[in-house]
Structure formats: structure tokens, C-alpha cells
From TrEMBL:
Gene transcribed to yield this protein: DNAJC25
One GO CC term on file: endoplasmic reticulum membrane
Compartments, as annotated in UniProt: Membrane
Keyword RNA-binding assigned: no
Name by which UniProt lists this protein: DnaJ sub C member 25
Source taxonomy: Eukaryota, Metazoa, Cnidaria, Anthozoa, Hexacorallia
Source organism of the structure: Desmophyllum pertusum
Single GO biological process annotation from the record: protein folding
InterPro entries: DNAJC25-like
């Protein structure tokens, strides 16, 4: 009996020790606490960095595309020759590939300095990255509220006439264009929109009907669209068809 009690006491001691060891080990493996603010800050920083790099990639892509167009490439070649930049190419110690790369680099630089690329492929600005957008958000909201109050005071209360900037804003909003799309639009096309006085609702409705009618005429003359309409009249995707075995 004494031996049996000794054995039971020893087992209980071992069990308690193991229990303590397991608890300590488990508590030691708890994941460390991470400040969520640090995670958010790092995430925003990474997104801002990638956003800026992507902007430069799109801008360089636009410059390279401009060089494939004879109109811009010839202008760049002419300007580079006038400035004497192509005369500095040393043909003796360089291969044709190296000379070609150096010439393309010079032409790209000329295009960047002479061509104003707008829209989604414009030169990226550091102020447009996510970090600065968040930091400047209170200032942006205040500017927007002040702009709304100014608009209401000038054109609702005082009944003043719209300026060119306000007219352009109204036309852009009626057409559903973003500021980037509006800036990328050619001046000649903007002049047509201004000449039609599209900031006036009645004129814009008339213009929109004309555009829709032109689109219907173009689609009616399109063979693929005609085939699609015949297909839909016959029942579209739900129509039943039979295929005979040979």
C-alpha cells in the first residue's frame, strides 16, 4: 500500500510538473502584439511607392509611343539636330546598337521637354501619391467647401454669368468626364463644345440626341451589328437549334 501511494504521489508530481511546463511553453509561444498603426502606415507607404513608380512607367510608355508616330519623331529629330545634340554621337568607338540606344535616349528627352502629355499618362506628381492625399485631405475638404460656397454665392444668389472655367466645369460634368479626361481632350474639340454652349441644359440635350443618332447610324451600317441584331431577333442565346448527323 505504501509503495502504491508513493507511486501515485510521484505520478501526480510529474503530471503537475508537465502541466506547468506545458502552460509556460504555451504562454511563451503567444504571438507578439503588433501596433495596427504601424501596419497601416507601412501599407500606405508601399502603396504610395508603387503608385509613383506606376505613374512613371505609364509616362515613359506614352513618350515611347509618341516616338513611334512619324509626326512627333520627325519634330524631335529636327529639334535635336538644331540643338546639335545628335552631332555629339561618337560613331568610332560604339556599335550600331549603342548608337541607336543613345539616339533614342536623346529623342525621348527632346519629346519630354517639348510635348505636353496629359490625361492618365501625364508626368506623375509627388503630390498625387496616397500618403500626401491623406495628409492634405482636411485642406482639400476645406477648399471644396469654400468652392461650393463661392459657387452658390456668385451664380445662385447674385446671378452672375459663368466664366470659361465654370462653363468648362459644367460641360465636363454633363458629359460625365473626369478632370483627367477633360485635360487630355484636344483644344479643337473643346472649342466645338464651347461653341455649342453645352453648359446650357437644352443645348446639351440636343447635342446628346445628335450623338446618339450618329451612333445608331454607324451601328446600323456595321455588318457585325446587323448580324447581332438578326441573331437576337431569332431568339438570341436561348434559341433552339438542330444539328443533323452526317
Amino acid at each position: 500500500m505504501k509503495n502504491k501511494e508513493q507511486i501515485m504521489t510521484t505520478c501526480w508530481t510529474i503530471q503537475r510538473r508537465h502541466t506547468v511546463i506545458i502552460i509556460v511553453t504555451t504562454e511563451g509561444r503567444l504571438p507578439p502584439k503588433v501596433d495596427i498603426r504601424v501596419v497601416i502606415a507601412v501599407s500606405i507607404t508601399v502603396v504610395s511607392f508603387l503608385q509613383y513608380l506606376h505613374g512613371w512607367s505609364r509616362y515613359n510608355e506614352a513618350v515611347k509611343y509618341a516616338l513611334t508616330m512619324p509626326k512627333y519623331r520627325n519634330k524631335a529629330m529636327q529639334r535635336a539636330r538644331e540643338e546639335g545634340r545628335l552631332n555629339n554621337l561618337k560613331k568610332g568607338k560604339k556599335s550600331k546598337e549603342e548608337l541607336k540606344e543613345e539616339e533614342e535616349s536623346i529623342l525621348m528627352e527632346v519629346v519630354e521637354n517639348s510635348l505636353d502629355i496629359r490625361g492618365g499618362y501625364s508626368k506623375p506628381r509627388i503630390i498625387d501619391v496616397l500618403w500626401l492625399r491623406i495628409v492634405l485631405l482636411p485642406y482639400t475638404l476645406l477648399c471644396y467647401i469654400a468652392w461650393l460656397l463661392r459657387w452658390h454665392w456668385k451664380f445662385t444668389i447674385k446671378r452672375e454669368e459663368y466664366g470659361d472655367e465654370e462653363k468648362g466645369y459644367l460641360i465636363r460634368k454633363k458629359m460625365g468626364l473626369s478632370s483627367i479626361q477633360w485635360d487630355a481632350m484636344e483644344s479643337a474639340q473643346k472649342d466645338v463644345l464651347f461653341s455649342r454652349q453645352l453648359w446650357i441644359e437644352a443645348n446639351y440635350r440636343e447635342f446628346k440626341q445628335e450623338q446618339e443618332e450618329d451612333m445608331r447610324v454607324k451601328l446600323a451600317q456595321n455588318n457585325k451589328y446587323k448580324a447581332y441584331r438578326r441573331y437576337m431577333k431569332k431568339g438570341g442565346p436561348g434559341q433552339m437549334s438542330f444539328i443533323e448527323d452526317d
